[in-house]
Amino acid sequence: MRHFINIYTVLVFILMLIPISSMGSEKPANTTDEKWGKYLEHRAAWNKMLKERYENKLKHTPPKPPWIKFPNYHPSDIFWRMGDGESYISDYFSIYFQYASKAEINAYKIKYPEHSDWRGTYKRFEH
């Protein structure tokens, strides 16, 4: 059963990332140049906002790992797929790992060792 939970946890995080990773930079068929341009502008503004969140907040006050921030939720809980849990992972935790340096990530991992139920989380989010 323990092996199943680890596989399930991996699948949950992979499914969370599919919409993000499937949005490439090639214009989809049947999309006007105007709509595509607006999408690219929006995406650039969103990425700029996330980078600013890292620079202005997360770099100085890194987010707590999900198992500390929300200790009552198992990694396979639906909480991590919608609502506050999903938002925390995608808008704070993953952003920190996206922009933090290797040294910052290593210090973070020493300060917050992975909980046994969350093993492999850091590896999935490291750049």
Overview in brief:
With 127 residues, this protein is mostly helical.
Q: Can you characterise this structure?
A:
It is a single chain. The chain is mainly α and 127 residues long. The chain has one domain (2-12, 37-125). 64% of the residues lie in helices and 0% in strands. The protein has six helices and no strands. It has helices at 2-21, 33-58, 66-69, 84-99, 102-111, 121-125. Helix 2 crosses helix 4 (84-99). It is globular, with a radius of gyration of 16 Å. The model has no long low-confidence stretch (mean pLDDT 86).
Counting helices, strands and paired strands, the structural category is mainly alpha
Structure annotation, total helices: 6
Residue stretches low in confidence (pLDDT < 50, at least 5 long) are: none
The tally of domains stands at 1
- Name the average pLDDT: 86
Instruction: Give me the count of strands.
Output: 0
